[in-house]
Structures are given as structure tokens and as C-alpha cells.
Amino acid sequence: MTIPARSRRSRLLLALILGLLARPCFLARRGLLVAATATISQPVHAISGGGKDYASSTLTQSFKGGNYDKKDFSGCVANNLDFTESTFRGCRFYKADLGGSNFEKSDLTGASLEGANLDDVNFDGANLEGAYFTNTILQAKSLKGALFTEALLPADAVQKLCERPDVQASEATRESIPCP
């Protein structure tokens, strides 16, 4: 093929594409596509804010009194740490090892503690509203005064929680689970 033939072919292809783009039905579809992508492109709030945060780390520092909302603590090792009077709203603690840690008076609203090691963890006075738990919540050291309103708890764990002396000692905790 000669160069002028290629040039003519390129011009014809360009004209065909421009002709399609100028058609009203294509413009209408293009407008719908733009409108659809405009609604999809609204900001999305990831649990971790898009970063690694504290995931898969061995933690040794105190988290007392801080704001750690939407951070990812998945798979971290955080034994015997001070998490008191802090906010962890929307945090992810998936399979985190939190054994012996203290979350007294902390806000864990909407946090995911799925599969986390909660052996000997103190949740006294903690806000656990809307948090997600597995049966490991049964290993917590103390839940006195903790609020579980709309928390996701395994059905078989609810009865066992309601039988605990620390839950029985707090009317607010009993009502938030809810216990019979």
C-alpha cells in the first residue's frame, strides 16, 4: 500500500469516527455515561483510609487518649497495651491479637473485631455500638458499662454474654445487648 493510500484510509477512518461522535444518539449515550460516572465518583470512605496504618505490625506504644478513627489494625500484635479513652470509630481489628489490652472508656463505634484475640481485654465503659464481633468477645475480661447497641454479635454468644456477672452488674450493658 502506498503512503497516499494510507493517508486516505486514515482520513476516512477519522471522518467515520467523527461522524459517529456527532450523532445525537451517541451524544445522548455519552451524556448518560458522563452522568453515571459523575455519581460514581463520589468520595468513598474506606475503613483504613486506603493505607496500611497499623496492620500486621507489632505495636508497643500507648494509644491512650488519641483519635484513630478508620485505621486498620488487622493482624497486628498489640498485647497488654493501653487503648483507654481513645476513639477507634470504624477501625478494623480483623484477626488482631489484642490479648490483655485495655479499651476502657474508648469509642469503638462500628469497629470490626472479627476473629480478634480478645483474651483478657477490658472493655469497661466502652462504646461498642454497631461493632462487629465473633465468639471471641466471650473471652473479654470485663464488659461492665459497655454499650452494644446495634452491635453484630453471634446468636450463640448473646445468651452467654447475658449470663456474665459483669454484664449483669450494668443495666445499660444488659439493655444494649439486649438481655432477657
UniProtKB/TrEMBL annotation:
KW Disulfide bond (keyword) present: no
SUPFAM superfamilies in the cross-refs: Pentapeptide repeat-like
Signal sequence segment: 1-27
Keyword set, alphabetical order: Signal
Cited Pfam families: Pentapeptide
This protein's name: Chloroplastic (p15)
Organism: Durusdinium trenchii
